[in-house]
Every structure is written in C-alpha cells, then in structure tokens.
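Supplementary Note 3. Input sequence used for the single-chain structure prediction.
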Amino acid sequence: MTQNANVVQNQEEYQIRYDGLTAKYDEIKEQYDNALAAISAKKAQSERLDNFIKILKSQEEIIKEFDSSLWGSMVEYATVDLKQIGILN
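The predicted structure, written as discrete structure tokens, is reproduced below.
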C-alpha cells in the first residue's frame, strides 16, 4: 500500500496484485483459525481424559456396577436410536 502512495503505477495491476494478496491472506487466516480451533478442542479433550483418569485412579476397588459420575466424566454426548431398542416402530 505504501508503494502505491509513493510510486506511480498502473492501478489495475496494483488492484489485481492487492486482491490476490488479500485472498491469500484470507485463506491463510482461515487455516490459522481452524488450527487454533483444533488445538483448543484437543486441549479440552485432554482435560476431559485427565479428569476421567483421575476419577478412575480414585476408585478404591474394581467398578462392579454403574457409576453415574464415572459415566458423566467419560461421555460427552450419546445418541440413542429408539427404533433399534424397540421403543419406536
């Protein structure tokens, strides 16, 4: 942009070059934002797994029956197909 202000140049060529650089910047910025989101998701997943391991280690004996706190620390979401379990036709 400074070059455009200091040196006389063909404005059409300058605009084409500028638009190309802007498009490249936008593409790289999107990749960067996606990478940051992936890193954030991996950190959150790591924290959940660390918590799950901590809960498992705190168990005094072998788990023999359903434990809702253990289940809650392990499962982020669950999908139930009511047709598969015979509730819906």
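DSSP finds three helices and no strands in the chain. The mean pLDDT is 85.
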